[in-house]
Inverse folding.
């Protein structure tokens, strides 16, 4: 290019043009940085919300903090539910060796105020990374502050700017959503583990008539549920006014035959009052046994075994770990276990009561499933009731196919939580008012796998996890997540798949109005035998033509 073709600016205007050009460059760089940061926060949200456990979430949080600032020094602190203290749970860099320690003044201030807090290099950090700039922001769950995330620079000349503090706030918001998801998952898993244990104990008791064997099952299960290291079961000795140890675990393994009278020690008091008793500070308890054998005991709990309100014995459990205590939730589940123990010791009514208990446990499983379904649907108001309607239609199809009642019950339970995996799908995708992009749809497609991962370890009396895993599979292998064909897909899954697509087409969605049952029937009829089981399709069409009540509304398709 010749010099003549270059745009020349009058000499008196040159400084202004240069300033404007510099300003434009700065604005462009700022916009580019902002877009980069927002993309990083978005990616972080997707990664964090896929975490199923709190340890997994904390690892992911620390690995993603680089989107805020280039520093290797960071930590996550959470509230200790037993002491209410804010403790560092996991750290990297300078904080790696501080797990279990208090989070310091900075973390405490962010925790108490609910706002990000920043300190400079010349301010005290409460023993954490002294002499460096630090920042911390609160983590929330259901409106309550449960912890903080913090980071620090490793050089005294580096401080946090406003942009980095804003990024930290956004990061903490993403972490809060992920924490809530992980907490829901862990809470559901804990509840299901407890129900599974009770269900398994029930099955054990229906097959065992030997009292000693039953007692061994009870104490081992009780210790497992409460995380106890030692324990025992006392029973009233026939024709006497004393109770004796019938089975012992850990410290009490050699205590079988030990006798206690009414009111003596913790065991005697529980037997006397027929009420549970917990001593979480055993070493300073006035009723502590002086024998050095019990010096390692930190906390002890006694749960009565009652028949018609009278104690006939008790289950005792012990923590030897310093600082470990029995919580109200421990007693709740142990009382249920104690009820099972009493049932096993009353052979005259054992079988009838076990039958009733199994029904109660199944009912509890059903209630849990309904609660989980509600948890899924409150995150996606546009599809509220979707799972219940699918369950209703799927049951009607199964009945039309003359399936056994127990199989129909399994179909109902599976359909009720078939979208449980959407707990790990960002809510903004679930309620997006426009068509999803491919990358967004792929995130939603993961819900079948995520749902299976949640449920696969639970010993339901029905193939719930498999149905959740397969409800988007198609007979010709074009479905997901595994591309199964034909009989590789269990019948229950094929039924839920048809009910799911019919309900989805006939219901309102954020991006379109309801298309109606006629369109739904056209869809499954056109793909009968290719994507959908022909027998299931025929049964579904019969149900819709006869009419079905979905959430109080009579739905019927007029033939012809």
């Amino acid at each position: 290019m010749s010099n003549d073709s270059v745009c020349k600016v009058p000499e008196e205007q040159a400084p202004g043009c240069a300033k404007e050009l510099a300003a434009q460059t700065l604005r462009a760089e700022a916009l580019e940085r902002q877009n980069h940061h927002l993309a990083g926060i978005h990616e972080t949200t997707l990664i964090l919300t896929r975490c199923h456990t709190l340890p997994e979430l904390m690892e992911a949080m620390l690995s993603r903090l680089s989107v805020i600032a280039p520093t290797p020094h960071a930590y996550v602190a959470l509230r200790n539910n037993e002491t209410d203290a804010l403790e560092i749970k996991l750290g990297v860099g300078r904080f790696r060796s501080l797990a279990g320690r208090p989070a310091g003044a900075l973390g405490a201030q962010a925790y108490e105020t609910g706002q990000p807090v920043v300190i400079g290099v010349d301010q005290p950090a409460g023993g954490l990374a002294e002499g460096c700039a630090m920042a911390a922001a609160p983590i929330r769950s259901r409106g309550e502050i449960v912890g903080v995330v913090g980071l620090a620079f490793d050089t005294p000349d580096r401080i946090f700017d406003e942009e980095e503090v804003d990024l930290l706030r956004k990061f903490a918001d993403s972490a809060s959503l992920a924490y809530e998801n992980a907490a829901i998952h862990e809470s559901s898993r804990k509840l299901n583990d407890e129900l599974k244990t009770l269900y398994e104990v029930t099955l054990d008791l229906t097959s065992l008539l030997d009292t000693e064997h039953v007692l061994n099952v009870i104490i081992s299960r009780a210790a497992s549920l409460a995380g106890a290291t030692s324990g025992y079961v006392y029973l009233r000795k026939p024709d006497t006014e004393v109770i004796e140890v019938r089975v012992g675990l850990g410290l009490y393994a050699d205590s079988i035959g030990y006798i206690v009278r009414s009111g003596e020690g913790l065991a005697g008091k529980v037997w006397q009052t027929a009420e549970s008793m917990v001593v979480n500070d055993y070493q300073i308890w006035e009723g502590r046994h002086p024998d050095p054998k019990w010096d390692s005991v930190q906390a002890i709990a006694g749960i009565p075994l009652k028949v018609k309100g009278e104690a006939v014995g008790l289950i005792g459990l012990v923590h030897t770990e310093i600082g470990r205590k029995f919580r109200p939730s421990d007693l709740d589940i142990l009382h249920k276990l104690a009820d099972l123990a009493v049932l096993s010791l009353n052979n005259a009514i054992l079988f009838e009561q076990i039958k009733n208990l199994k029904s109660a446990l199944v009912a509890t499983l059903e209630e849990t499933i309904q609660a989980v379904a509600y948890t899924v649907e409150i995150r996606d108001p546009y599809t509220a009731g979707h799972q219940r309607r699918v369950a209703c239609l799927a049951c009607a199809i199964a009945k039309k196919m003359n399936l056994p009642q127990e199989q129909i019950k399994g179909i109902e339970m599976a359909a009720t939580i078939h979208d449980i995996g959407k707990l790990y799908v960002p809510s903004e995708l679930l309620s997006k008012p426009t068509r999803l992009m491919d990358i967004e749809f792929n995130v939603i497609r993961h819900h079948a796998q995520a749902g299976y991962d949640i449920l696969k370890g639970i010993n339901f009396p029905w193939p719930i996890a498999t149905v959740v895993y397969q409800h988007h599979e198609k007979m010709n292998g074009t479905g997901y997540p595994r591309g199964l064909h034909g009989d590789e897909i269990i019948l229950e899954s094929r039924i839920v798949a048809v009910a799911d697509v019919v309900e989805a087409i006939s219901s309102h969605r954020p991006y379109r109005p309801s298309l109606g049952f006629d369109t739904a029937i056209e869809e499954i009829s056109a793909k009968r035998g290719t994507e959908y089981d022909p027998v299931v399709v025929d049964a579904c069409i019969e149900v819709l033509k006869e009419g079905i009540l979905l959430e109080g509304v009579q739905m019927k398709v007029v033939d012809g």
